[in-house]
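lol forgot to send this yesterday, sorry. struct tokens for the thing we talked abt
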């Protein structure tokens, strides 16, 4: 519950800080708060949609990424413009007549604000994962049209297979889900480590490791070059007893 309230606190503080910036452009406090709140749809859309963009084909991935970013910026521009129109429609209450500042529809400025919000949320999530251990944290998801709830400690590793993600438990059960592995990485926190573009592993489930692979019980999981150094910083390359 404390994690939830601290997360809500982060987003509330973010809106207030954006409102202060908007107020410096000439808006009243109430109007600034409204426009500051309008940055949330774009930030939340980016947080949940960008991790879903993936493709083995580099060109297709870049095209999909550009389309998603464009859609997010269009959503944000629409929210800002509509909020400004609402403010203008009741401008007598605020006692001023203000044209829409160009900076608020500048794609670089809007993209920068959304990026800062997402990066801040990422660091807050990491802090909360350290401050409040996730051992007893539960995660809920849909697998084969059924809702499944698991303790994060019971998940051995997460595997990405094309458009699906497979959740492997310590007891040998397997569940399928459509949520991207990057979102699973953010959701499960620092008790899990990314070792490959397709694998996310529970640190406590690792039974042995080598130069370019690790074992979770009898399952061999590759460690790609991209994640190898970070992995071996946490797990020095030595063979632990798997027996």
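and heres what i got for the seq, position by position
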């Amino acid at each position: 519950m404390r994690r939830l309230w601290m997360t809500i606190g982060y987003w509330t503080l973010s809106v207030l800080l954006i409102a202060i910036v908007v107020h410096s452009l000439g808006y009243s406090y109430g109007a600034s708060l409204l426009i500051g709140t309008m940055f949330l749809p774009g930030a939340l859309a980016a947080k949940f949609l960008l991790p879903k963009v993936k493709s083995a084909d580099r060109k297709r991935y870049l095209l999909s990424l550009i389309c998603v970013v464009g859609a997010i910026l269009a959503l944000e521009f629409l929210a800002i413009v509509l909020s400004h129109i609402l403010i203008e429609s009741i401008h007598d209450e605020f006692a001023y007549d203000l044209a829409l500042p160009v900076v608020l529809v500048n794609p670089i400025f809007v993209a920068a604000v959304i990026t800062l919000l997402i990066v801040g949320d990422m660091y807050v999530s990491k802090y909360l994962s350290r401050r409040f251990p996730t051992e007893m944290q539960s995660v809920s998801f849909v697998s084969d049209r059924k809702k499944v709830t698991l303790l994060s400690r019971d998940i051995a590793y997460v595997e990405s297979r094309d458009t699906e993600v497979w959740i492997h438990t310590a007891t040998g059960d397997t569940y399928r889900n459509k949520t991207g592995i990057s979102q699973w990485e953010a959701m499960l926190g620092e008790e899990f480590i990314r070792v490959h573009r397709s694998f996310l592993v529970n640190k406590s489930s690792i039974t042995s490791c080598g130069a370019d692979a690790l074992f979770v019980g009898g399952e061999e999981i590759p460690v790609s070059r991209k994640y190898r150094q970070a992995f071996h910083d946490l797990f020095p390359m030595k063979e632990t007893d798997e027996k």
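The radius of gyration is 22 Å. anyway ping me if u want another try
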